[in-house]
Structures are given as C-alpha cells and as structure tokens.
C-alpha cells in the first residue's frame, strides 16, 4: 500500500468514527501490559504504570454527558488513572437518557442504532453513551476497567442467561471496543469465582482471544480473590481481590484474612506463574463498617490509606479507592444504599479521594520496577492495626505505620554505609528530613503525634550517594 492510499485509508477510518460517535477521537492512550518481572504494569513503551483506581460503578447508567465530563476531569485532577465501571448493572439497564441496553433483557441482543448524533434521539443509544464516556476518560488520561455484566445477573435464581448468550455478548463488546486502548476488562463483578465458572470462563476467553492487547481480570466477592479459581486461566492477566467492608470483629468467616488485605498480596505472589495483583475493592470511604448496618461508624480517609499502603507495600501493582456516594453515583431523588447521604458530585472531593495520589507519587519517586516487599527490615512487626509493612529497592526502603508507633529497623538491607531518613505524611504528601544514620544495627524511629489509629506515617530510608 503506497503512502497516498495509506493516508486516504486512515482518513476514511477517522471519518467513520467521527460520523458514528458524534465526536472526534482523541489520541489513544498507550496499551498496558504486564512488566517483565510479572509483578507490575507498564505501558507499551516500558514506562511504569501504577494503577490508581476509583470505583465509579454506575457511571454509564447514572451520569449524563455533563456528569461524565465532571467526574473524569475531577479524577484526572486527583491523579487517578483507572476507573472501574459496570457496563450492565442489571440486564434491564437503562441510562439517564432512557436508552435501554438490551432487547427484552437478552444479553445476546444489545440495542444499537445507526449513527451517534446526540441531538438525534433516534441515533444516540445506550452504547453510544458508553462510547462517549470512554472518549472522555481517554481525553483525561484514564483507563476504564469495565465489568461486562454484574455477577448477580448470572447468579440470581431467576437468571436465564446462558453460556451461549454471554459468548455473543462478549464478542459484541470485544468487537465494539477492539480499537480502544484505554479499556481493561473486569470479568465477574462482586461474585464468587467457584460458581458459574462456565459463564465466567466463556466471557474471559472471548474477550482475551478477540483482543489480546486488552488486560483481563476477575472482580470477586468480598474477602475473596480471582487467584482462588482463575489464576491459571489463559485469559487472566492479573489478579484482583476484594478485601471488603467488614472490621476484624465483624468477620466470622473461617480462614479469612479479615482486614489484613496485605495477606492476599503475599499469597498471590507465591503462585506460579507470577501475576500482578491488587485490591480492587477495599472498605469504601463513607460506608458503614460491615456495609449493611447504617448505625455503625463510617470508614474514613485514614482507613482507605491503610488499605492502600498495606497492599502496595506488600507488592501490589496498584490500588483501587472507593467512596460510598461515588460508587453508586448518588443524586437527588435516588433511594440511598448503605446509608449514604452525600451527592456524588460533592463526594468526589472527599478527603480520602484527594489523598490517594500521594501513594502513587511516592511509589513513582523511586525506581519502581525493582521494588520488592521485605519484612526483614522490621524488628518489631506487630499485628492488626499495629502491623508495620516494608518495601524496598536497591537504594531505598519504605516502612508504613498506621498507628504512629515506634519503628525499629534492621539496617543494612539497602546499599550504602549511611542512609538519609525522612518521614512522609500520607495525608498530604509532605516530607520531613530526620537525619543521616549509619546503615547497620537496629535503629529506632518515632513518628510525631500520639500512638492512635490513623496517625499514619511512612519512614523513608535512602542510600547516601
């Protein structure tokens, strides 16, 4: 094909997209892939990608175009680079404009119309609105991790969805979004991985086989992990666990990791083949402890920080934050779930949402791909909220305390005869130098403030050059 023909062909494709979508496509984001060491994500050109996600589950159905614009612009400003969304919350899904997603609630029959002119009701359909949201996300540098169909639609006793249905539906999704580099797939959707495996394997296999460059994982039920059922599935590129919304004392499940979400990471990284893993749904900010009893205390910003640092320092490839109001995109007139009283467009500025960027900045401040967890750094490890967790590279070490308790460090674990020690404040990203120390023996470091839950700090040790 000569250059002139190539140019005309590209121009034609661009025109077709513009005519169909009603807006011109922005520059594609780079494809994501698993790093060579199989622990993390990188862009197609090898740059580290720290997954900083938000759960905007009902974005496609609840937000109009102005709301989509506001939401993704806000998330970009706060440093988020992934948003997790349901494509179909229910099989009777209808968006804010009254557009149904499916014919007669049949997942094998999506309703599509010719064209994508927002000003023409006959052209703008449910899937065009999804296209619009994906385009807005792309313009804001955000990848969208999409759940094809929420798990309850499959597991309900009334469900009539078959394997053949989901294969057709998954092929529709794969074909429609094959050129979208900012699409990631979350198979499942808050569901047990050991049930309806024929359905989930069919969806995962169809998506991965059709579009091998798009990452695929499984979003499981609370206190469970994709690795428990799908670690060796050919379609699963990385693991995702849901550490859930219950306190230590509220969790009576046998063999549960309870609030210790770092244990999912520690377990997953012992599996073969090695795959990245991350917490895709910890306790949401602003949601009651235990989820359903609205008289319980609400999880706070410090709690979502703890889940983030615990899991990431254990070796996770990123972290997904969530807020009660934002995950359900709560608007005036809605029936609140889980005791929520905030509007989504106010809750997007909750304290925890603004603090998540500091974990991303800290991780990317140091050589990222060489980073490993190393609990041997800690001489006084502790348990539950007093648990200390450490990660390091060749020339740096990071240790997190949630309660501001004294940290006793086994020195000599990183390079250099001397190290510079600093405190890092997870709530505002501020760094305070402590001093220079010999890199040997056991050294004790005491954060400021009294010992209490939420007085969290990161101790930074950096090799002197």
Automatic annotation (TrEMBL):
Gene3D superfamilies: Glycosidases (3.20.20.80). Residues 372-461 form the Putative collagen-binding domain. Residues 35-369 form the Apiosidase-like catalytic domain. Pfam families: Apiosidase, Collagen_bind_2. Keywords: Signal. The keyword Phosphoprotein does not apply. Residues 1-21 form the signal peptide. PANTHER family: ENDOGLUCANASE (PTHR37836:SF3), LMO1036 PROTEIN (PTHR37836). This is Putative collagen-binding domain of a collagenase.
């Amino acid at each position: 094909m000569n250059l002139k023909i190539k140019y005309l062909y590209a121009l034609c494709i661009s025109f077709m997209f513009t005519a169909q979508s009603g807006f011109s496509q922005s520059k594609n984001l780079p494809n994501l892939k698993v790093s060579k060491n199989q622990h993390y994500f990188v862009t197609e050109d090898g740059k580290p990608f720290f997954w900083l996600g938000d759960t905007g589950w009902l974005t496609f159905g609840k937000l109009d175009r102005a709301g989509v614009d506001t939401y993704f612009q806000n998330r970009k400003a706060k440093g988020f680079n992934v948003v997790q969304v349901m494509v179909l919350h229910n099989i009777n899904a209808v968006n804010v404009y009254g557009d149904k997603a499916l014919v007669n609630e049949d997942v094998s029959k999506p309703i599509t119309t010719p064209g994508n002119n927002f000003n023409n009701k006959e052209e703008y359909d449910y899937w065009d609105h999804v296209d619009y949201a994906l385009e807005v996300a792309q313009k804001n540098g955000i990848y969208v991790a999409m759940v094809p169909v929420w798990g309850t639609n499959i597991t309900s006793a009334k469900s009539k969805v078959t394997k053949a249905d989901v294969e057709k539906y998954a092929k529709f999704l794969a074909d429609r979004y094959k050129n979208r580099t900012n699409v990631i797939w979350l198979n499942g959707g808050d569901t047990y991985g050991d049930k309806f495996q024929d359905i989930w394997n069919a969806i995962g296999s169809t998506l991965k086989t059709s579009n091998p460059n798009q990452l695929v994982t499984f979003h499981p039920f609370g206190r469970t992990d994709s690795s428990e059922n799908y670690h060796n599935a050919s379609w699963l590129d990385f693991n995702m666990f849901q550490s859930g919304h219950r306190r230590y004392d509220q969790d009576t499940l046998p063999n549960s990791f309870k609030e210790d979400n770092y244990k999912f990471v520690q377990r997953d990284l012992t599996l073969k083949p090695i795959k990245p893993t991350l917490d895709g749904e910890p306790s949401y900010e602003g949601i009651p402890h235990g989820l359903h009893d609205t008289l319980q205390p609400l999880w706070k910003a410090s709690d979502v920080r703890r889940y983030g640092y615990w899991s990431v320092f254990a070796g996770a490839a990123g972290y997904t934050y969530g807020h009660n109001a934002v995950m359900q995109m709560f608007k005036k007139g809605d029936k609140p779930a889980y005791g929520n009283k905030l509007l989504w467009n106010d809750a997007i500025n909750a304290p925890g949402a603004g603090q998540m960027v500091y974990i991303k900045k800290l991780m990317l401040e140091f050589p990222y791909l060489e980073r490993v967890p190393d609990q041997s750094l800690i001489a006084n490890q502790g348990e539950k909220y007093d648990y200390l967790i450490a990660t390091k590279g060749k020339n740096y070490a990071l240790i997190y305390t949630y309660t501001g308790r004294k940290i006793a460090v086994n020195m000599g674990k990183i390079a250099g005869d001397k190290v510079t020690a600093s405190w890092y404040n997870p709530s505002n990203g501020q760094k305070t130098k402590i001093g220079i120390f010999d890199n040997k023996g056991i050294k004790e470091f005491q954060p400021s403030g009294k010992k209490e839950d939420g007085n969290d700090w990161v101790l930074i040790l950096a090799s002197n050059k």
